[in-house]
Amino acid sequence: MFSSGLSPPCVAQVLAAFQVIKTDTGKQRMQRLIKNSNLLRQVLRERGFHVMGDEDSAVVPVIIGHPAKMPAFSRKCLEKGVKQNLRSQQYKQSQKKFFFFFFFG
Asked: Within a domain: residue 2?
């Protein structure tokens, strides 16, 4: 039988994150994250990007029509100071989903 349970270090990390989120500083960070994510969604939509996902989520999926455009788009983000973690997933034929993951310290 196989198990896909979390390792003890992963569980410890999640529990520590919950402890931080419960503090006033953690709550402020969460509100700032939501505000920044929603602002990014709004700006991308205004510039004609196909933005998916839910409001108030830190994950902002953006559809890039052709897979070859993804590296250039990622480079442009980095040039502008947007720190993102690129993930791709097949969405429709000839379309990929480009995910932004935000990390705030």
From this structure: no
Q: Which residues contact 29 (CB under 8 A, 6 or more apart)?
A: 20, 104
What pTM, to 2 d.p., does this model score? 0.69
Does residue 7 lie in a domain region? no
Give me the number of domains the chain comprises.
1
Task: Please give the average per-residue pLDDT across 68-84, as a whole number.
Answer: 79
Domain interval for residue 91: 13-101
Strands 88-92 and 59-64: unpaired
Average the pLDDT over 47-71 and give the result.
81
Q: Which residue, among 60, 65, 24, 18, has the nearest Cα to 39 in the 3D structure?
A: 60
